[in-house]
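tokens incoming
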């Protein structure tokens, strides 16, 4: 593999295929006759520049994703304790907490990585807000039913457009990958009596965030960005 193909392969990890080819072409012209060192230094700098929002999104999702899901969860259980309800009944609050955390992780990452104008960000934030409400009212008699009806109505309206359906597919597949990773991490035995058990939660959380957000970023590029670009190119040549 020559340096052009290798550089394009590296840049395609952080930008689209056409953009990667354009950037490599510019670097080849700029660094012509100056050796490989300057060329690879410039490619490395481009990777850092275009990866900054991704790294910032991963860090934000790791912190904000946990806080925005666990804080309502703590509030709900504090409320249950104050009003004297010892058990929420047959409902499993951990289920809603897990969904809320997965939702907030992808929503916060999308907001930082793609911006608020991204459809993935908007539907992710809406899903995260609905899941947060579910965490807060899961113990009410008709709380979950009311939120479920609202969620079905919103998503039914959302999928009327083809691009919206692709966006929803990206969100659901990212959540599924995060849920699978969470399921596997829970199976890792940790002794709560040992001090290392708490510290092990940090790399496990980050691994979960990387898997879920990595899937969201990959599918966003494949199903939304490149698909839209191909559709525009097809219309232009029609």
């Amino acid at each position: 593999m020559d340096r052009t193909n290798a550089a394009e392969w590296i840049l395609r990890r952080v930008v689209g295929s056409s953009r990667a080819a354009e950037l490599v072409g510019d670097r080849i012209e700029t660094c012509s006759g100056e050796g490989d060192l300057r060329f690879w230094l410039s490619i490395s700098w481009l990777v850092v520049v275009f990866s900054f929002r991704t790294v910032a999104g991963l860090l934000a999702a790791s912190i904000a994703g946990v806080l925005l899901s666990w804080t309502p969860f703590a509030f709900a259980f504090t409320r249950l304790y104050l009003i004297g309800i010892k058990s929420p009944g047959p409902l499993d609050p951990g289920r809603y907490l897990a969904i809320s955390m997965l939702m907030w992780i992808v929503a916060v990452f999308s907001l930082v990585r793609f911006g608020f104008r991204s459809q993935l960000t908007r539907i992710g934030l809406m899903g995260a807000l609905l899941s947060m409400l579910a965490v807060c009212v899961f113990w009410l008699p008709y709380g979950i039913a009311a939120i479920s009806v609202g969620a079905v109505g919103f998503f039914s309206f959302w999928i009327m457009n083809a691009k919206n359906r692709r966006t929803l597919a990206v969100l659901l597949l990212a959540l599924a990958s995060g849920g699978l990773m969470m399921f596997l991490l829970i199976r890792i035995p940790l002794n709560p009596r040992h001090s290392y058990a708490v510290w092990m939660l940090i790399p496990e959380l980050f691994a979960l965030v990387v898997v879920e957000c990595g899937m969201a970023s990959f599918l966003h590029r494949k199903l939304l960005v490149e698909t839209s670009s191909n559709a525009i190119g097809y219309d232009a040549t029609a």
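note: The chain has eight helices and no strands.
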